[in-house]
Amino acid sequence: MEELYEEGKIKVIGVANFEIQHLEELRQHAKILPMINQIETHPEFPQNELRAYMDKHQILHEAWGPLGQGNKVLLQHPVLKEIADHHHKTVAQVILRWHLERGVVLIPKSSNPKRIRENSEIFDFELSAEEMEKISRLNSGKRYSIQPTGYIVNPIFNALMKLFI
Prior knowledge:
The chain is mainly alpha-helical. The protein has 9 helices and 3 strands, in the order αβαβαβαααααα. Helix 5 crosses helix 6.
């Protein structure tokens, strides 16, 4: 990748699901650090420590699963609902705006034309510092995906796997 970058054949080197230890290993062995890291990020799992590390090393943060994989609990959370109602927006729009105001790169996925349109309607309002703080307090450390180190974090899946291993 570094060779392709140096030859001008690619403009950016990116990684996905790299945690601090992975990025540190790259720092020790690579000439060029990645410019962007796509990681699971949503209000319940904002990855603040990793984000601070990436900011320090000028690595952009791209949100994977910015809406918590469309988790109903998150999308119906009363704090988010209250903020959404105040701004006459959907909870998804509030979450996307929260990411945007934190400087996170967003590429939300949807095949639903209505949601695609809604996802683009996040530039006509701002969240207050108090609202940003309320959303930040939703951090529970909850992942909706597999940990990058390969450990499955869903307890039901773990219990079922023990039956077969």
